[in-house]
Protein 1
Amino acid sequence: MDGFFLFLNGLIWGLIIALIALGLTLIFGVMGIVNMAHGDFYMIGAVISYYIVSYLNNFWLSLIIVPLLAILLAAPLERFVLRPYEGFPSSSMIATVGISFIIQQLALAVYGGIPKKIVNPFPLDISMFGIYYPGYRMLVALISIVTLLFLWLFLYKTSFGILIRASMQDREMANAMGINVNRVLISTFAIGVVLATIGGVLAAPITQVFYLMGNDIVLLSFIVVVIGGLGSLKGTFITALALCAIEGVMASFLSPTQARVLTFLLMIVILMFKPSGIFKD
Amino acid sequence: MKKSFVIVFFVMFLLTTFFIASVNTAEGQTAKKEPIRIGLIAEKTGGLAAYGYSHEKVIVAAINKVNKEGGISGRPIELFVEDTESKPSVGALKFRKLVETDKVDFVFNSNSSGIAIACAPIAKELKVPYFPCSSAAELAGEKGNRYVFQFATNVAQECKGAAEFAIKHIGKKWVTVVVDYAWGWSNEKEFTKYITEKGGKVLKSIRVPLGTGDWIPYLKGNIPKEAEAVYFANFGSDFLSFIRDLYVVRPDIKKLGAVYAISAQDPKKLGKEAEGLYCLTSYPTRLAGLNTQYNKTFRNLIGIDPEGKESGTGKYFIPAYNWTIWEAFFALKSAIEKSGWTSKADTPKLIQILEKMSFKESVEHPQGDKYIRAEDHISITGLYVEKIENGEIKVVAKIPAKDTIYTPMANRINESF
Amino acid sequence: MTDIKRKININFITIPIFILLILMGFFLPEGVKSLVIHIMVLSIFAMAYDICLGFTNQCSLGHSIFFGVGAYGVALSIIHFQTGLLSSFFICIILGIILGLIAGIICVKLSEAYFVIVTAVFYAIFHLSAMNMTWLTGGDDGLAIHLPKISLRFVEISLYDKIINYYFVLLVLIVSYFILNRFVNSPLGKVFVAIKENEKRVKFLGYNVFLYKLIAFVISGTFAALSGGLYAITLRYASADFFSFHWSILPVVWCLIGGIGTLFGPWIGVAIMYIFQYYISSIWHYYLIIFGIIILLILRISKKGIFGYIIGRLQT
């Protein structure tokens, strides 16, 4: 039964990674920025939720406060710092590395260098299929799915969302059609950052809140984005779930390190045969 | 061609200024009242940033105390601190900087075994005594040298002492459960070796990956019925998962933990799963575990409260390792005074004296009596056994130093300087 | 209509710098010498990476595999096979070439984003494996190396002598630079630059673009391995950390702030970073904040980095 347990674990991490990776894909697709600081936004989400738990004693408030703070952070960051690098992958990659340095060191200065735990906000175990599964993780799944649903509704059913997707398809056309580029850029970046921070909040109780925690998920997120097919939202989502679930299952009979190495090898093999990714939008 | 000339000139100018600036940094003349320079390489940023904070405070407190009392041999002590960024390559470069640019005569610290292992050969190359606070056993073996002195107890000492206590007070038939990386493997290997030597038996060795949430698959069906006790090496959230799941599988089994396993835990939050658990430590985190006048004074001087956190701010200290820096510093002080060290030329004499020194329990050595073993420069000292009873951690036994003595893996007595 | 660009021969900068470095070896205080040695070693790495990114537009995030393999090539040869210093060096170069071919054949044919990701996956695999195989690599703790003496015909020299260490590294830097400069100014190099500017056109002209990019990748990897070996020698240490993401992303940072496609520019990137780390870190250990701001400023002024900007201005 532990294989199933680890599969569920993998799936739920897949949902968190899906949130983060979707943010990354939006930022890259619409703005042409390779956001190496994306993991640090995830970290900021976790850190802020730590403070909210410490001072306000309520974890769930983070889900409201953190996105708001994220928007306050993201909007000026895009408008005044990132704008010149948009459309230049290499430069944006290194510019965001610079931003990553800054964010990490600031977190170190304020939050400190000690990894801290957040108490499980929902310590009930739910019995299903013969095992006891942590209730909090089920809530994570629920919240992630709801968030993804909102995201889907926004991107596919609202006019502004469709604008954003159009900009992803073809920036120049979107520009030529007189779309307010400024609004689109700021909003997209804000959405991307919000998704990453929500991922951080959700992950905080099941991992440790540490100022370098972003480094653990950056590579995986990028891989998910590329394999899912650059610019394909559906592909990103499915890839995130699939990869994390596969890794989870493999971890039941291999060490986590071996599981990860094998997952990566699998990805290389996939890309050798399908060089443009599994899904093309 | 004029533009390129300007550029070349500009570049040369930059290089020359930086070269001049560097020449002007500390040129240590060795006059009599010149300060003794001490270097500290600390993990101030990076993955191990939790350690550097307290280590620096401890050595500053030690230096302040000594400077107030007149310094060492009448000379004040000056401290230089560098950040290793938790990386061995940076640590090695900063070690060099401390010696070559800041002209320090002695270097203290790093908790990281990687950094300590990278710096140990440099200490010998630059002929500078080095006091890492890493507990890596390799430093007492092939990866160390005559310039390196280790005050932190290493796994071999700990397991040997633990095995003695375990056989006498806990049981003969054991299972080991360790985290699946170097520290865990060392504990597994050393404990098995020594418990077997003393007539016990390890029935099964279980390894669990770091960060595992669910330990049931690893424990269930893997603990033989006749096993009386478990020796475990894990900490943090792994420890919490471990005792929770072990209780489900074998609520009756006795438990003995490796050094540091419960250091950061709050005993009140551990619940019935942790009742009766034993754990080793080289230094009790709580004052109550070692309630001597010396220890009280020491803790006041470095600024930690009876629970082991920083007084006033509640920030985390690492008492399990902080004492090693404090004691290493005072050991050096004694050695300087005893050998009459005045400058680098005297360092061989200092080492020859230090490697045979013993220290009595005092404010300078609050952890207990100890001595340095000349062959491999480890400190032979006792350990403490803590037990969780009624939601409290109490020191229930002291493992005497003689129980921890193991055959040295190196003999540096005739090593050249 | 393209502007006709004046051909800039960067030797007019590098040769005076080399002369300066040769002279400085006699005057520099010990500590600064260590710093300069450090910078010189990593400049080779940066320069090697520039061949990949700056000259053929291949943004590899996996170059730490070469760095680590080079370092371990030297370390393991010395520790287990007791080879001499120079022979270990050659071993690590051979390893670099082989690894470059294997990785290159798999990666080079992939298009941009996929190339980046697969090279990144390579580094991740190497890093995870190196951390795990502690029996071979020492894992995170690493392996300390005792350097054998180099015996030339009549004399034995030891790299433990700081001056010897300095000139040895400087010699390798100078030789590497001239070799790479030759490549870059040869017909081969011209194809590289053409590929960077317009890959499709080069393909239409009948060139086997894949082959040229592969050659660039292998050259880049080989010199990166060389620099890794030199780094292990300089530090007398090798660890699994050399395979980490840190060493994959740093060459990109050095090239982009120093100047891509210029061969010399990346040295500036290395110098800025390590001078900062050496002097500023002890004053304010959050120096990376300043460094991050500098990165943003430099990239704002020119996407090609400092030296790229200078060269650009000189060409018009």
Protein 2
Amino acid sequence: MQFLQLVISGISQGCIYGLIALGFVLIYKATETVSFAQGELMMLGAFCGLGVMTFLEYPFWVAVLASIAAMALFGILLERAVIRPILGQPAFSIVMLTIGIGYVLRGLVTTIPGIGTETHTLPVPYKDMAFNLGALTLNAEQLVVIGTTAVLCAALFALFKYSKLGIAMQASSQNQLAAYYMGIPVKPLNGLVWGLASAVAAVAGLLLAPITFVHANMGFIGLKAFPAAVVGGFGSLPGAIVGGLIIGVVESLSGFYLPDGFKDTAAYIVVLVMLMVQPNGLFGERLRKKV
Amino acid sequence: MRFIFKTDYAQDIRLAKHGGHVFWYSLLVLCLLAAPWLIDEYWLAQLTFVLIYGIVGLGLMLLAGFTGLFSIGHAAFLGVGAYTQAVLTNMGIPFPIALAMSALLSAAVGLVVGLPALRVKGIYLGIATLSFGFIVEEVFARWEKVTGGNAGIHIKAPDLFGFKVDTADGFYFLCLVLAVLATLAILNLLRSPTGRAFVAIRDSEISAQSMGIQLAYYKTLSFALSAALAGIGGALYAHKLQFISPDQFNIIQSIDLLLMIVVGGLGSVHGAFLGAIFLIVMPQLISLSKDFLPEAIGQAPGLQSVVYGSVLIAFVLFEPMGLYGRWLKVRTYLQIFPFYRRGMFKRQKSFQKSDRLK
């Protein structure tokens, strides 16, 4: 029973990793750049929700929608302002750029007097609810995380499979030039992808907020989403979620069964093993460099 | 304006290209030698840190700037060097031997990390080194018998075969000598076939391979050399601070090291030291400017990260060659005055090279 309990808490944590990893993968597929600012975007989304709920005192649902919309807009603006000018430069420049963005966001949040330097709890309506299922205790927060992730995945699947926009995004991620020739506006599409990734990050932030706290350094969890993305294969959307789940469950189990210290490093050990065994991840496309 | 007529092949690889180089670098060395008598103790300590970070920067520059491999976990090598030095020095082993051991152990660890580098590239390598950095940090914190765990470990003054270097001036000279040696070693390496091979790998792996360069050998070598320099830097860092703990070698430190070489200028030896100056001087400037800023901004704990982040963004967007690139432009402007044209250093329009199969 304890095992099952650990697995469930691992899955809910893994869903968070998966959602952040989803952001990486979306951006990677679209622009072949890796965003190190994803964790900070998540933090910003959580702060947005907090601001709307506690200072403007709007109900929870308004706050959720408002912060997702705000973050999507922020993502689009970010892409337009700093990412687009250096597209095509070496990948490392863009990595450093996103690290810089992460630094700035994290620092800016702390300059907001009275809010940025404190830790807050997000007063969600489902706080502290729990269900008993036999000997299992299910926290409402964990169930909400799992449920929302499932819904979001279904929505993204539908977007990429059936909508024109999603198909255009797929096309441009496979071959930008060919997509451009087919009349797909690649540049605005990249902006939309950043918006989408930021919105997903905001969802992750809002889901994580009741479990941990809202504070300026919560974005560091984004560093654990990298292993998730790699385990799943960097270019694969379902892979990101599966990778997140694997990392979450392994972390939760190793925290209980293995000695101290393994909980924090489990994700990294898994990813190193993965990179040695199968560098392309579970669902990754096989890559071979052509001359 | 200066014209260099090349009449000899040896001129191409000469370290000092012309008399100006000899003059200015000699002057620099003289100033550095006289520094303990010219500046006060506080700034001398900062200068020592610049030299230490410069050595680490040289290592990372060799890896990132000249071989094109990126390590987001370089603080781990710094830490391996620092802890080795601390443990060995406290056992009573003389400084040069301990330093050599730190460098060797770091290089050995670098070899281990370099192995996945043979299979993965680009961002995967970044994530592999990132993961490695986290694991090493955890090892420092948990291996309490040797490292003292989170409580940290104190380290004695360096002992040069019976001669104790326990003054700030003495340690400064020690760092200066090592920094100069490291710089000369890197410069020499870069004009040797090995260095050329590194640069070839950076520019195009496939063409390097076609020219008969063994990717596996040179990539691992680059990792090992880079880690060895980081280990030497770490050993000096440990002596300078006299106290080390695992959180000095975390991801923030790794990112600071990367920031250092990007701001300094990727792919230039000067860049390592310019970046080190930036990394050391910037916090001083920030704390000086705090008094002039409104309280909400000046007292915010995140001010430093805002400044670092903005500087990083600005450099990536506007000056990809870093401080050294800016200096090159200024120098060219002065050299050919008044014939400088705006487009001389215009960034070439480049198209993204995809790693994907198309």
